[in-house]
Amino acid sequence: RYAASAPLINDDNLKGYWKFDEASGAIINQSVGAGTLGASADMSITGTPTYQNTGSPSGLTDASVYWNGTNSGGNIGTSTSQFNFMHDTTALWTVCYWMAFPQSAFIGDAILDDTNAEDDKVGVWIGTRTPSSGTEYFGGWISLGVSNNHICTWYPPTIPIPNDTDFHFYVWQYNQSLASNNFSYQVDMGTAINLSKTANTPSSADAYSAMKWMMNSGTNLKIEGYTQELSIWNEYLSSSNLDALYASGAGAPIY
């Protein structure tokens, strides 16, 4: 819809791409790949995020959106079915984005969510939680709609969050067809954390809600942070493609 040049990497399976470089209003899905969700995945805004913040990775436009953790979040369209490829019988996806947390100690919630941040709803939740240790971790699941029944879960949260206020490149991936190590998480293209799927059969039902960004889909609890370059793929991106997007820490736009 906005691409004026060839994509950095093949974009056939790029469902959504949000650069967060707008000055106001909706965050537009800029994917023009063959599989794009198009305008149905434009991100409408809840509350009052702050646009055009400076301090981005050197290879990206010097702009990001700041989500204040109290009244701001994004609604990625209104459909409860357009992200079913993330939890159904052939679940296959990559989610990657640049994000900076404004403080090293914080209380967060959902980053990406269409389950109401509850494991008895169908869909995917990626977020943060503070367990009894008092240290914030990433957690999440791919849920089947029955409490404690998951395709895969990384909860209770044990995935460490960088303890600084810098931008980092986060990658979450899942491939249901693999025999093991179906789930992968990386930050700044470092060593991957891998988890295997459960024996449960994935659900082809629609998600509990439309997909949310930086807030959960039920109580609308928000998370604070700066974000850039979110992309969601119906593909398990190769390391070489992810390396191209990371660009040795500088970041590189898809278009």
Please describe the structure with a list of short key phrases separated by commas or semicolons.
255 residues, mainly beta, 8-stranded antiparallel β-sheet, 7-stranded antiparallel β-sheet, 1 helix, 32% strand
Task: Describe the protein.
This protein is mainly beta. It contains one helix and 15 strands, in the order E-E-E-E-E-E-E-E-E-E-E-E-E-E-E-H. Strands 2, 4, 6, 7, 8, 9, 10 and 14 form an eight-stranded antiparallel β-sheet that branches. Strands 1, 3, 5, 11, 12, 13 and 15 form a seven-stranded antiparallel β-sheet that branches. A hairpin with a 5-residue loop joins strand 8 (137-144) and strand 9 (150-153). The mean pLDDT is 91.
User: Tell me, what's the shape?
Assistant: globular
Count of DSSP strands: 15
Strand content: 25-35%
Sequence of secondary-structure elements? EEEEEEEEEEEEEEEH
- Cα(first) to Cα(last) distance is 11 Å
